[in-house]
């Protein structure tokens, strides 16, 4: 089985500062991983490098069919967020209301989130809504 993601010798530098130093990892297809760490620990930098949004050294190979990244809401202007309620956003995907409710529950969100506007979501809520979308 091919890995979903393979990262080899990933190094990210910002000037003379090394943010990520020689990181290698393999995520098998079907696995679900999370990256945790303190503020400033390089989590966002790692994701940005894996999505080719920042320069890096090393190799990143994806077998994924689709993936995306939305910066934390504190890096976005509220007017850049879609002028939609969460429910309308999921409707664009074609519905599946029961599945969406089940997935929202699995990521710790209540049904009431569907009536909120994107501009009213916290960073964590926004990330979990996008996880359900994926």
Descriptive notes:
With 134 residues, the protein is an alpha+beta fold. It is 26% helix and 22% strand. It has 4 helices and 3 strands. It has a 3-stranded antiparallel β-sheet, covered by helices on one side. The chain starts with a strand and ends with a helix. The relative contact order is 0.15.
Which structural class fits the helix and strand makeup? alpha+beta
Low-confidence stretches: none
- What is the typical, i.e. mean, pLDDT? 80
* Envelope shape: globular
- Count of discrete alpha- or pi-helical segments spanning 4 or more residues: 4
State the distance separating the first and last CA atoms. 22 Å
Give the ordered list of helices and strands: EEHEHHH
Radius of gyration: 17 Å
Tell me the major beta sheet: 3 strands, antiparallel
Beta content comes to 15-25%
Strand order of the largest sheet: 2-1-3
- Count of distinct strands: 3
Helix content: 25-40%
